[in-house]
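User: tokens in, sequence out, please.
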């Protein structure tokens, strides 16, 4: 399985970097996963920032990717449902799943419309840094569920 995670903005908090690195270390033996950090335009107005971020996100998408965008108004599913969805997607071995995590303003409507699925991690709002860490934890949990292995150690 190939997974790409597009994130608007960088990780500034060291404890989140440590968590991201830990989950990548756990996932890489089983899943080809990469994270692409794209620039944030948060210093601009919301409308302009969303347009600029939309442009760079679209440039980083390829044909055949199954796109899952994270958005607070997306579908809320359990970890078990996420695992089933993730591992039963109709993708070939050479294609990939791409997750998109927007910046402080979220993502544009065009990005949402380009998505195959819109996922909400919670009714609460998280920074892009926390969203990335939570997403990686949920991908790892989904892998453990799919492999019928215990998660807690």
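Assistant: Sequence out:
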């Amino acid at each position: 399985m190939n997974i790409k995670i597009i994130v608007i903005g960088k990780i500034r908090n060291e404890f989140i970097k440590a968590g991201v690195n830990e989950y990548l270390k756990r996932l890489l033996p089983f899943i080809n996963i990469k994270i692409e950090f794209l620039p944030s335009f948060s210093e601009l107005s919301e409308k302009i920032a969303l347009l600029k971020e939309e442009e760079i996100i679209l440039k980083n998408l390829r044909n055949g990717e199954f796109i899952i965008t994270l958005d607070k108004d997306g579908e809320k599913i359990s970890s078990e449902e996420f695992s089933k969805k993730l591992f039963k997607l109709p993708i070939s071995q050479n294609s990939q799943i791409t997750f998109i995590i927007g910046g402080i303003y979220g993502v544009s409507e065009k990005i949402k419309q380009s998505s195959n699925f819109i996922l909400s991690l919670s009714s609460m709002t998280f920074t892009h840094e926390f969203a990335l860490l939570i997403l990686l934890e949920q991908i790892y949990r989904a892998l453990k569920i799919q492999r019928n292995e215990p998660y807690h150690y």
